[in-house]
Amino acid sequence: MESLKDKLKRDKIPQHIAIIMDGNGRWAAQHGNARIIGHQQGIMAVKSTVEGAGEIGLKYLTLFAFSTENWKRPKYEVDALMKLLVQAIDNETADLMKYNVKLGAIGDLEKLPLSVRTKLKECIGTLSSNTGLNLILAISYSSKWEITEAAKNLATDVKEGKIDREEITDRLFAKYLPSSHLPDPELMIRTSGEFRLSNFLLWQLAYSELYFTDKLWPDFRKDDLFEAVYDFQNRERRFGKISEQLF
Ligand code: FPP
Description:
This protein is 42% helix and 14% strand. The chain is α/β, with parallel strands linked by helices and 247 residues long. The protein has a 6-stranded parallel beta sheet, with helices on both faces. The chain has 8 helices and 6 strands, in the order αβααβαβαβααββα. The chain has a single domain, classed as 3-Layer(aba) Sandwich (Undecaprenyl pyrophosphate synthetase), CATH 3.40.1180. Bound molecules: farnesyl diphosphate. Farnesyl diphosphate binds next to α2, α3, β2 and α4.
């Protein structure tokens, strides 16, 4: 039988997919477990998704692992999530190497505990010469933080006379975003039946296709990724134009 993966058009795989991994807490509650068990199960979903991304030749996968707002969660949950991140990075580096995955991170990383920052830096270094999938972890990330950073740095350049006020365009502004090295995602997936962007890549998602699924993140697997890509491939992206102008 033809699998969902086989049905995907190989020349129409998006370059960049961004995912809001939501529903770990609800998954845990449904299974009568503590929230952290949901986050632990979420790692299985991350592994399967990364594997699937590699199989279809995706170039960039950005995962929203921890938002600026998540710092406001109870301390025990924040601590447990940080510990889980270090453990996951530690446990998975060898497999990521095997899959030729390069790792990156976006966010206000200065706010992370030293142990997380050190481990992250170490793993990014180990995988730096890989040439396959670019896996980007958005950690301590929020879009408003990122856009504010861009505004601050641009203001400095204007003040120092490096940029003239009249030269500022959206393209120039985008160059000041901390994540400016990444192409805009063509597709954004959010799990758990919530229809929000939650301060995630607001600038970059301006023309992205949005895909929502009721699946809770711990239940998400590579086949769900393929389904989202299949759905994406059957949409018409007009970028503000009309259908007839696209061909
Ligand atoms: C949202 O579910 C999920 C998070 C805040 C954390 C996601 C992190 C992981 C899956 C670990 C990632 C690890 C790596 C290495 C990328 P929620 O807690 O908001 O769930 P709820 O809305 O049901 O309460």
